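Reopening this one. Same input as before:
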Amino acid sequence: MKNRLWAWGEALRASYWFIPAVMAVIVVILSVVSIKLDERIQNEITWLSALTYVDNPEGARSVLSTIASSMITVAGTVFSLTMVVLSLTSQQYGPLILIHFMRDRGNQFVLGIFTATFLYCLLILRTIHGVEDSIFVPHISVLIGLALAVSNLAVLIYFIHHISRAIQGPNIIARIAEDMIDSVDQVFPSQIGKDAPETDEERQQWLAKRVEHEAKRINARTSGYFQMVDVEQLVALAAADQLVIRLEASPGQFIIKGQPLVSILDLDDRRVIENLEDRILDTFVFGSQRTVSQDFAFIFIQLSALAVRALSPGFNDPYTAVMVIDRLGEGLAAVLQRRDPSMFRCDETKTLRVIAAPLTFETLLHTAYDQIRHYGSQDAAVVMRLLRIMNLLWSFAKTETHRRVIRDYAAVLVEECQQHFTPSELARVSQLYDEIRRRFENSPPLKE
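Same output, byte for byte:
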């Protein structure tokens, strides 16, 4: 059930109908309440008619009809502009960036407020009576309609400002980087249970070998991108039936039907694995595309793809690539400041329950910069910025393993660019690399 709620939530966040639908329900309720108030005070309308400048049914109909027709016209214009922006963004920055525009609550709210105002005016229009024996002018409702119309002018100005800022490269990069930093705490599989106690490391390794040779594999029943796993439920299932579960895939991988998904070791040899297969598979969510919820590397891929597109001959914009390099460095620095999660995850009793390959700093570094390094190896500004980021990441490294990864990557970077640069460019890059390498060599070793 939790997985279904998560999938529905992800779909709703990226939809252009949910917020407008909620606002439509709100104005339906508002129209009913305002009409009831108008019916109660219909004989005390002097001051209300003065506020609305409407004292007859024809005038009220005219005001509401004008507001309704204007709002539906503006709503259509807003929708058209949004589609144009999505199209231009896809062409300029790539389709991977569209998910962030689809999640933009500002655009969803703007579309919703215009359609809601239109619906509200229609609902009030039907209550106005102009027959001699029964004249009813809902002054409070008309006043609310006028207030909505005035507020919509402010919303329209906001939309123009918001959409013009949303398509600017630095703002797109910053928005994705914010999601990246927010997702650091959700790096898979650091949320699965508790870390294995250090004193039980030998037992964890022994159980891992048993899983390798004795475990039964459960295969995927559908193809698609592995989006998430209900980690709490998976640990609970393993604890309840004395199992050790090893994940054979990580969020973000494309899974083919029939591919091994998990391996299960029954510690009590009760052979209950067949009965658990459906419940275990229910903890996994697959979809047609990657998401950022548990697939932390996907955010790095999005930013990297943006930089690669900027470096292509059709755009030739190395400065956008440099901005992306800086933001990727921010995310990698945040990862370096966290303790690497153990591949062994335990339940509340400190018993090993789940084995999963955590996302390492080395993997993230290559995911972030490999494509940029390849396509930007002919641009001195890009290479020098990458070297400076390696120097910066060295300051955040907390283990010698991380330092080794950074040092090796800087060496590969310089080696790859040598065949593309002019002598003057190569001299500048070599000088910077020599300074960084001396710092690497002279830094005191870290205490593990």
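So the earlier flakiness isn't reproducible anymore. For the record, The two ends are 42 Å apart (CA to CA).
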